[in-house]
Design goal:
- This protein has 8 helices and 8 strands.
- By secondary structure, it is an alpha+beta fold.
- The chain has a 4-stranded mixed sheet with strand order 5-6-8-7, covered by helices on one side. Strands 1-2 form a two-stranded antiparallel ribbon.
- A hairpin with a 2-residue loop joins strand 3 and strand 4.
- The radius of gyration is 24 Å and the shape is flat.
Length: 244
């Protein structure tokens, strides 16, 4: 939403500009608080809150697991992880029953671990500092693993080896998705990770597509192993090798 404001002269060398009350209230700002003005171009200024470690803010969430299937719990857990919740408590009478499955789900997430467990609750703690994640290196790692997956489709490697790499790609996907989401919501976060705010969606699109390719390669690898020795498998292998 675009809001028009008029400049008001305040002294010989400066002008003032009023800010929308709704924005002030939403960000809990008071007189004397510091704001940052970033000159984006000759005709554009960006106003943001004081630079701070927004990803380090403590966010907690409770997920009720009673009468929910594992897929629903996994979706809610994934949402909490992507929203940078530092503490996730799973509450339910089935806590001990689902604990092994929860540990399996945690394999997709970097630095999210079981901190406490009891008969009716599981506490997960996030030990990740997003500022230490190098997005370029992580993207390069995803790319190299996908290239290796291409080769494994035609070199006869076992399915389990292939699935392990796909799992690693998924883990990086969730990590980068989380980092880029933070940068999209908060311009200060994009500054911290060294990405222009207007380039965040480009990185996100790239990450999503690399992860999709890994999923297709996993399915392709299973297909080739299932029909190995048949003419169709030979044709697929030739096609993969020619494209690669």
């Amino acid at each position: 939403m675009t809001i028009a404001r008029r400049l008001v002269k305040a002294g010989q060398t400066s002008h003032t500009l009023s800010l929308p009350k709704e924005w002030i209230d939403k960000n809990r700002l008071n007189a004397g608080d510091t704001l940052y003005i970033d000159e984006k171009s000759d005709t554009e200024l960006a106003i943001s809150l004081a630079l701070k470690d927004t990803t380090a803010q403590k966010k907690e969430i409770i997920i009720d697991t009673d009468e929910k299937d594992l897929d629903t719990i996994q979706r809610e857990l994934t949402s909490a992880y992507l929203n940078n919740c530092s503490s996730i408590r799973l509450m339910g009478k089935n806590s001990e029953e689902i604990l092994p499955m929860i540990r399996s789900i945690l394999g997709d997430f970097v630095a999210l671990e079981v901190a406490e467990q009891g008969p009716k609750s599981i506490l997960l703690k996030d030990f990740l500092d997003l500022h230490e994640v190098d997005i370029e290196k992580s993207l390069h790692r995803m790319d190299m693993m996908v290239r290796t997956m291409f080769l494994e489709c035609v070199d006869g490697s076992v399915v389990e080896t292939h699935r392990t790499k796909d799992s690693e790609v998924n883990k990086l996907y969730f990590l980068l998705h989380r980092q880029l989401k933070s940068a999209l919501v908060d311009p200060a976060a994009s500054e911290h990770i060294g990405i222009r705010h207007d380039a965040v969606l480009n990185y996100w699109y790239l990450v999503v597509n690399i992860e999709n390719i890994a999923d297709y390669l996993k399915d392709l690898h299973i297909l080739i192993r299932a029909i190995e020795g048949k003419g169709a498998a030979t044709d697929i292998i030739k096609l993969v090798r020619s494209d690669f």
